[in-house]
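Appendix C: a fully annotated inverse folding record. The material below is reproduced so that readers can follow the format used throughout the book. The structure is listed first as tokens, followed by the designed sequence.
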């Protein structure tokens, strides 16, 4: 689906948190759960074009961060 961003963790993890922040540090979305793959719809109408930061946290792997650009 257009606008869908997929974060694949490589293997199944428990107690994972995925957070999306804007450039001003405001939390845009938060998902918690268990799994291998997490999806986030960037075409959501409340999201403006710009840069967003993704933080994925889990007890088994620590913290992973990434940048996503919506255009």
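Designed amino acids, in order:
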């Amino acid at each position: 689906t257009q606008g869908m961003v997929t974060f694949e963790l490589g293997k199944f993890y428990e107690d994972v948190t995925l957070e999306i922040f804007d450039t001003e540090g405001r939390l845009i979305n938060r998902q918690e759960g268990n799994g291998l793959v997490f999806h986030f719809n960037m075409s959501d109408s409340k999201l403006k074009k710009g840069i967003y930061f993704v933080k994925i946290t889990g007890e088994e792997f620590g913290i992973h961060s990434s940048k996503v650009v919506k255009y």
